[in-house]
Amino acid sequence: MTALAAPPTAPEKGDPPQTPPSGRRIGKGGAGRTMKGGWLSYLILGFALLISAFPFYWTIVAASRSNADMAKVPPSLLPGPNLIKNFEQVLEEADIGKALLNSLIVSGSITIGTVLCCTLAGFAFAKLKFKGRNALLTLTIGTMMIPPQLGVIPLFMLIAELQWVNQLQAVILPGLVSAFGVFFMRQYLVQSLPDELIEAARVDGASTARIFWSIVIPIARPGMAVLGMLTFMTAWNDFFWPIIALSSQEPTVQVALRQLGGGYVNDQSVIMAGTLLGTLPVLLVFGLLGRQNVGGIMQGAVKG
Amino acid sequence: MSLTATAKAGPPSPAGTGPGPDDGRAAALRRTWRKASPYAYIAPFFTLFIAFGLFPLVYTAFVSLYRVELQTSGEMEWRGIANYTALFTDEFFWTSLRNTFTIGVLSTVPQLAMALGLAHLLNYKLRGRTFIRTAILLPYATSVAAATLVFAQLFGKDFGLINYVIGLVGFDPVDWQTGTVASQIAVSSIVVWRWTGYNALIYLAGMQSIPHELYEAAEMDGASRWRQFIHVTLPGLRPTIVFTVIISTIGATQLFGEPLLFEGSISGGISHQYQTLGLYMYEQGWGFFHLGRAAAIAWVMFVLIVVLVGVNALLVRRRARKEAGR
């Protein structure tokens, strides 16, 4: 017990959720790295993976069958032949095609804009000295925890005043605000951009703008990529604000899914086909870059 | 912010007299610009932040004191605290407050407990480590809407797969829609499914920052794996646990998409049995067009979050003090 009395104080000083410097490379050091997992660990993890994956599998099964199949007892557990037919039907009935295009435009613009704004601001907060820096940074971080959902009413009044309701910029512009992104890029640059490099460039007569383009951007690129992926996912999946600001005339995928679930399409397998179409793009991004996403979240991502 | 930048960069130019910029003036200009330019870097973010982030948050409190209707959102009529009194006399407000709390507990507690267990297992040396971590994060990449539509299907009363399995085991089918407890469990399960893997990875990151020596010392003292988990891992993980509890609490307080899409009704079931505060706010604002009252609900949610986070912090501090005193 004597040795065990010490631990509580030691690691408490660090704040793991926010980018522990050693956490940059996952899997280095740490507790259980020497302990091998037994068969029970694999069994439990296997079960967890099954539960994680089953709804995806079920979506495919349901989307490839007919509505009549869905009402059968016992239910069919294998994919059927109707996938293409259901896709066609949902494209026709719920305008998923337009929704996909809109979501691509919205999420793409938000991703590019957010990464740019946050890298600029993150660089200033990390490496430039100016009056009010700490106060502004505190303000930014302080609002990180406040859910944007709470400001939705004035935001709607503002958008209505600007006559932007039902237009994509109503979703894009508010989507660009990411206090988390600023904080993330600042942390990234504090760690990976040495002050000496900037000093050296200054001595050579480089302006701040020049330094930003030729030194900061290349170094920040991996961090920008992680932030970009997280932003894209969040933007693609954003639900509350889009269903308020947009309607079925100009839907994003989530707005279209809401319409689908709202009851005017009664065919369960068509609904599941729409769900599948709306989820595939983000799963694709995730599949391609999942490893980096895992790294990004472990470095201290905050719920979207 | 950009105003400051231009104001600061402004003065030097009219001060100069010569037609061409001489060296001294150029240097002075450059110096001023260097001082002002940081503001140019934060200007894009802060312009958007103030317009679409800060202003709406602050203005919500103001709007909650007025009568504002959706169709004529430009007209505001002073009501004082009438929006709040109307709220507190509406039984559905209290229903949704209670539901938010029960669904919050039903979703947060199992989610975090399972995440902790999974993180512990993930921390072992495992084959296919990256694959497992990625796969466990898959639900997090799914949208609320998509996940809820699939779960609504699985929880179907007559033809849902879950009721089929329950029937196989020999129990009666559960009415996942109309039963208060059953429907809340169903809605919570969506939250649990989407967030458990995410929290597990956060815990895993926390576990990996616990110094290895602590485990070696514990092992030398003959502590079993279980005791090591209780006496080394859990205390070392405390800041991470506090972080996830706070984040989940905030998420639970504003739960919205899951109850909305579970049956597609804005009142959260026939008898509001799983309507949350977030959904109640949406119903008041965009179902009944009372934006002012919706703003009052938003403000109540904000206060609720502040109180819950405060209580959390207080508990943690007291706990820490207790342990330090031991």
UniProtKB/TrEMBL annotation, chain A:
UniProt entry tagged with the keyword Transport: yes
Family note: Belongs to the binding-protein-dependent transport system permease family.
SUPFAM superfamilies with a match to the protein in the record: MetI-like
UniProt protein name: Carbohydrate ABC transporter permease
Residue stretches spanning the membrane: 39-60, 104-125, 137-159, 171-190, 211-236, 270-289
Membrane topology: Multi-pass membrane protein
Pfam families: BPD_transp_1
Keywords: Cell membrane, Membrane, Transmembrane, Transmembrane helix, Transport
Location of this chain's protein in the cell: Cell membrane
UniProt keyword Cell inner membrane present: no
Record region (Disordered): 1-30
Limits of the ABC transmembrane type-1 domain: 100-289
UniProtKB/TrEMBL annotation, chain B:
Composition bias type Low complexity, residue spans: 1-10
Region of interest: Disordered: 1-25
The keyword Membrane is annotated on this UniProt entry: yes
Transmembrane segments: 39-62, 101-122, 134-155, 296-316
UniProt keyword annotations, A-Z: Cell membrane, Membrane, Transmembrane, Transmembrane helix, Transport
Family stated for the protein in its record: Belongs to the binding-protein-dependent transport system permease family.
Protein name listed in UniProt: Sugar ABC transporter permease
Species this protein is from: Streptomyces durocortorensis
Taxonomic placement: Bacteria, Bacillati, Actinomycetota, Actinomycetes, Kitasatosporales
